[in-house]
Amino acid sequence: MSPAPKFLPSEAEPLISIVRDGPLFIMSMNDNENRFTVEFCKAICDGLDYIADVVDQEGLQEAAVVTRGQDKFYSNGLHFEKALAVPGFTEDHFMPMLNKILLFSLPTIACINGHAFAGGCLMALAHDYRVMRSDRGFMCMNEIDLPAPLPAGMSALLRYKLHPHVYRSVVLEARRFSGKEALSNHMVDAIAEGVDATFELSKQVARKIAPKAKSGSIYQLIKEDMYPEVSSRLMVGSSKL
């Protein structure tokens, strides 16, 4: 019998829900367009802490995390009205959340079921692996069209995760990449048609890599060594999460 779902910040306000599927922890973002606020970032971070605690308490040798959105959105980025109302939101809340995903102690797979714009694109890229729906949704960074500058931490993440010519198109052209285009440009690792097939393929990828969790803290240490510059730039502000 599978454990009951975990809702964060609470069952009455389920911004995030986590369910078990064998060795997999499925983290669903349930807030419509899944725009980032202080509460939403904290729920994601608390969810990752919850998963890490379960893995430690149960001594799991196989585990991986799959994140996904709902309907036509993976995440549509920052909630500008609420984000701008909080001084230091990007440095104190959003970028530390990206860093937590980037260096998480288990394999992470982003199931990009729909649009991943701006902050949603960054969140997906912070994962170890990405599976994207091929028939609907785009990955895009639209700061050049706002216009708004990219903080150094975000730029570092994009620069490390993307090939140079793709990075240029992403940040200077705000190009929208379909699933097929994202795959051909090595932004994602696999694509599938339809939301259900994308989710199933994401779980296949996750199950394949889940045995690497047996390395315990070594998995995280290796990632810390992979991304020292990115992590330091993402954590330039205070670390509250």
Automatic annotation (TrEMBL):
Database matches in SUPFAM superfamilies: ClpP/crotonase
InterPro entries found in the cross-reference section: ClpP/crotonase-like_dom_sf, Enoyl-CoA_hydra/iso
Cellular component GO terms, alphabetical: peroxisome
Reaction it catalyzes: a (3Z)-enoyl-CoA = a 4-saturated (2E)-enoyl-CoA; a (3E)-enoyl-CoA = a 4-saturated (2E)-enoyl-CoA
Matching CDD domains: crotonase-like
Transmembrane feature ranges: 101-126
Keyword flag Mitochondrion: no
Single biological process term from Gene Ontology: fatty acid beta-oxidation
Listed GO MF terms: delta(3)-delta(2)-enoyl-CoA isomerase activity
Protein's UniProt name: Enoyl-CoA hydratase
